[in-house]
């Protein structure tokens, strides 16, 4: 199955977690702007160092930078063949308009926007309990989603995990505030395009995924 999909939701809503499950089932290229920035920061590239100043404060990286990264990635062959799931992009109306133009210029359209809906009050605790495998990037949670064997990654067997710098409570507060402000206009934007599917993200990960898979099935029929 090939589809052009956006996963949206507040920080910690479960975008990356659901993307991982979609990828296992459908092998669609996963484009997370946050992951791209973290990789650039780890490699200390010029773009990464510039982005770090914003990310450390929980602010958005400027649109020119982010739009350019997405434009490049969307023109690569795997995406042209298999579609994409965008995770964490677009995050404001200007980015949404830029994406519409990128897609229109290459005769593509969105099949679905899945909005993973979670009350902000749940998210601070969720994010402070998140841990990530340093080797393969699989994401876990001390409370809701631990590894099957303590200290060992389910996916790759590594014992090396880390926490994200921007998951510290001080940064999370601002990240949430910034994203909450942008979220409602974006939801309305995609509602008006008739592509929005809102899913209750406050249930077990597998139940959320069942709804995600139902949406993907429905847009492919
Ligand atoms: P990004 O990395 O995208 O961060 P985010 O949007 O804050 O989202 P997260 O990755 O924190 O959450 P998620 O929804 O993926 O949740 P996850 O699945 O991990 O962006 C980081 C920064 O980069 C931004 O702040 C910004 O500075 C910059 N940036 C990125 N994109 C940008 C853009 N377009 N424009 C400008 N700047 C941009 O799950 C979270 C935790 O909960 C995990 O522990 C998981 O195991 C657990 N969990 C998942 N689902 C459930 C469930 N159903 N129940 C219980 N626990 C669950
Ligand atoms: Mg994520
Ligand atoms: Zn791993």
TrEMBL record:
<feature type="binding site">
    <location>
        <position position="153"/>
    </location>
    <ligand>
        <name>Zn(2+)</name>
    </ligand>
</feature>
<feature type="binding site">
    <location>
        <begin position="59"/>
        <end position="61"/>
    </location>
    <ligand>
        <name>AMP</name>
    </ligand>
</feature>
<keyword id="KW-0067">ATP-binding</keyword>
<dbReference type="InterPro" id="IPR033690">
    <property type="entry name" value="Adenylat_kinase_CS"/>
</dbReference>
<dbReference type="GO" id="GO:0008270">
    <property type="term" value="F:zinc ion binding"/>
</dbReference>
<feature type="binding site">
    <location>
        <position position="203"/>
    </location>
    <ligand>
        <name>ATP</name>
    </ligand>
</feature>
<feature type="binding site">
    <location>
        <begin position="139"/>
        <end position="140"/>
    </location>
    <ligand>
        <name>ATP</name>
    </ligand>
</feature>
<feature type="binding site">
    <location>
        <position position="156"/>
    </location>
    <ligand>
        <name>Zn(2+)</name>
    </ligand>
</feature>
<keyword id="KW-0862">Zinc</keyword>
<dbReference type="Pfam" id="PF05191">
    <property type="entry name" value="ADK_lid"/>
</dbReference>
<keyword id="KW-0963">Cytoplasm</keyword>
<dbReference type="InterPro" id="IPR006259">
    <property type="entry name" value="Adenyl_kin_sub"/>
</dbReference>
<dbReference type="InterPro" id="IPR007862">
    <property type="entry name" value="Adenylate_kinase_lid-dom"/>
</dbReference>
<comment type="similarity">
    <text>Belongs to the adenylate kinase family.</text>
</comment>
<feature type="binding site">
    <location>
        <position position="38"/>
    </location>
    <ligand>
        <name>AMP</name>
    </ligand>
</feature>
<dbReference type="Pfam" id="PF00406">
    <property type="entry name" value="ADK"/>
</dbReference>
<feature type="region of interest" description="NMP">
    <location>
        <begin position="32"/>
        <end position="61"/>
    </location>
</feature>
<dbReference type="InterPro" id="IPR027417">
    <property type="entry name" value="P-loop_NTPase"/>
</dbReference>
<feature type="binding site">
    <location>
        <begin position="12"/>
        <end position="17"/>
    </location>
    <ligand>
        <name>ATP</name>
    </ligand>
</feature>
<feature type="binding site">
    <location>
        <position position="175"/>
    </location>
    <ligand>
        <name>AMP</name>
    </ligand>
</feature>
<comment type="pathway">
    <text>Purine metabolism; AMP biosynthesis via salvage pathway; AMP from ADP: step 1/1.</text>
</comment>
<feature type="binding site">
    <location>
        <position position="33"/>
    </location>
    <ligand>
        <name>AMP</name>
    </ligand>
</feature>
<feature type="domain" description="Adenylate kinase active site lid">
    <location>
        <begin position="130"/>
        <end position="166"/>
    </location>
</feature>
<keyword id="KW-0808">Transferase</keyword>
<protein>
    <recommendedName>
        <fullName>Adenylate kinase</fullName>
        <ecNumber>2.7.4.3</ecNumber>
    </recommendedName>
</protein>
<dbReference type="GO" id="GO:0004017">
    <property type="term" value="F:AMP kinase activity"/>
</dbReference>
<comment type="function">
    <text>Catalyzes the reversible transfer of the terminal phosphate group between ATP and AMP. Plays an important role in cellular energy homeostasis and in adenine nucleotide metabolism.</text>
</comment>
<feature type="binding site">
    <location>
        <position position="95"/>
    </location>
    <ligand>
        <name>AMP</name>
    </ligand>
</feature>
<feature type="binding site">
    <location>
        <position position="136"/>
    </location>
    <ligand>
        <name>Zn(2+)</name>
    </ligand>
</feature>
<dbReference type="GO" id="GO:0005737">
    <property type="term" value="C:cytoplasm"/>
</dbReference>
<keyword id="KW-0547">Nucleotide-binding</keyword>
<dbReference type="GO" id="GO:0005524">
    <property type="term" value="F:ATP binding"/>
</dbReference>
<keyword id="KW-0545">Nucleotide biosynthesis</keyword>
<dbReference type="InterPro" id="IPR000850">
    <property type="entry name" value="Adenylat/UMP-CMP_kin"/>
</dbReference>
<feature type="binding site">
    <location>
        <position position="130"/>
    </location>
    <ligand>
        <name>ATP</name>
    </ligand>
</feature>
<feature type="binding site">
    <location>
        <position position="164"/>
    </location>
    <ligand>
        <name>AMP</name>
    </ligand>
</feature>
<feature type="binding site">
    <location>
        <begin position="88"/>
        <end position="91"/>
    </location>
    <ligand>
        <name>AMP</name>
    </ligand>
</feature>
<keyword id="KW-0418">Kinase</keyword>
<keyword id="KW-0479">Metal-binding</keyword>
<comment type="subunit">
    <text>Monomer.</text>
</comment>
<feature type="binding site">
    <location>
        <position position="133"/>
    </location>
    <ligand>
        <name>Zn(2+)</name>
    </ligand>
</feature>
<dbReference type="GO" id="GO:0044209">
    <property type="term" value="P:AMP salvage"/>
</dbReference>
